[in-house]
Structure formats: C-alpha cells, structure tokens
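hey team, just a heads up i'm posting the complex here instead of the shared drive bc the drive is being weird again. everything in one block, sequence lines first with there labels, then the predicted structure for the whole assembly after. its two chains so it's a bit long, scroll down
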Amino acid sequence: MSAGDFWSTSVLNFCIALGVVLGGSTMGGVGAFFTNQPPLYVMDNLADQLKIWALVAALGGTFDTIKSFELHILGGELNQVFQQIFFILSAFIGAHIGTTLVRWLINGEW
Amino acid sequence: MFKGRHIRHIRLIVAFVLGIIIGCITMTISYGAKLEGLYAERETLYYEYNQRVKKIQLLQQDLDKRAQQNARQQEGSQIIKQIQVEIDSPVKFNQSIVKTEVETILKPFLNKSVRWVSSDPALLDTMLKKRLVKLPDKNTVEIRLKYLAFFDSELKVWVSAREISDKDVSMSGE
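-- predicted structure starts here --
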C-alpha cells in the first residue's frame, strides 16, 4: 500500500466512524422526538452505544482486520500490522470525536 | 435509464427529503433542551402523582380497617353478654335461688342481638309470666317481669316475686 492510499484510508475510516456516530445519534434523536422520548437524552445514549459499531463499520468488519493481523504477523510484515493498527486508531478517534461532539452539543461541555 | 427530466424530479424529491431530515435535526437540536425540560417535568409530575395515589390507597386501607374495627366494636356492644337479675320481693330470703332460676330461664338470650330482644320485649315477659319457682323450704314463688333495661351489652331484668301458698296452686284436672 502506497503512502497516499494509507492516508486516504485513514481519513476515510475517521470520517466514516465520525459520520456513523453523528448521523446515528442525530437521527436517533429525531426518532426519539416522534416516539415521545426525550431527544437529547436518547442522542447522548446512542452516541455512546454507536461508538463501537462506528469502529466496526469504518473497518468493514472486525473479522477481516483480525485475519489480516494473523497473515501479516505470520508473514513477518510488521509494517502492515502497524498500518492496520493505525486504521483502527483513526476509526476510533473518529468515533470518539463524534461522541464528544454530540455530548458537547447536548451538555455544552466536553 | 432515467431521462434528464426524470433525473431532475428525483433530485428534487431527494433534496426535499434531505431538507426535511435536516430540518428535523435542526429542530431537535434547537428545541431539544426545552423538550427535555418538559419531559423531566412530566416525569416529576408522574412520580408525584404515583406517590399521592399510593398515599391515598394507604389512607383508604387504613380507613377501611378502622371502619371494620368500629363496626366490629359496635356489633360486639350490641350483643347481650351478661344478664343481671334483680328481684323485687317482700321476702328477703332465698332470693338467690329465684335469681338463678330466672337466669336459667333467660339463658337463651345470651349472645343474642340487643336489637332483636328490644324489638320484641314481650317475648321476655311471656317467658317469665306466671313461672313458679320451688324453694327449698317447700314454698313456691310466682315470678313476673317488672322492668327490663339494656346497659351496653348487659341485660338488666327486674322481676317481682310473689310467694304463693299451696292452696293457691291448683293441679290441672282438679
């Protein structure tokens, strides 16, 4: 994987995770409004719950990542392993920033 | 597949739907805090309402219990539990025997309702009318109901006793 591909995948993972959390929680809030529930409270809960799913969605399924870990470690390609770790990290940061943004939006604090 | 005009229509519809979604999100974010406050207030009101309902139910149960106790007490006080006999007689001796005899006659009235007895006092009079009590000294006493009174659960009976001689007593068939 070239350096350009690496960075584009990282940014993509970040944005997907961020989008899943932001979109999921805001749409969940709208749904909560229609179902007679407190919208901001539901948004806060959803942001927390969606964090892990955002990570999974960004990476395209946990199984593939774990499989590639195994292949690269056994093949002695540690460079690829670190790349995968960075992808996971970027997705995690995206999901975390999404959750933090939602929380900030609701509570007015980080 | 789709012609230019159709594509424009589809874009318009999608834009409209997106607009609605964005509007919903904006509205949720801007009025969310206010709504949240109202929901919290509703929750508090529900809680207070439930607490009051529980309190009312407890009071109702307490009231029912007290009413039952009161009814039981009233019921208990309206039952004849004791019969006291007073003898009105010029003869002072052997009064206890007459008393015992009268008490035995009136024993069926024990544990009966005061209302039932007081509604028909003639029954007592009938039971005691011209009753003869044999005394150990071979004399005979004729008893008659004089007064009766109720004191809570006590039936008090005044009986007049008149000593009769043997000649006053007539055997049937003679």
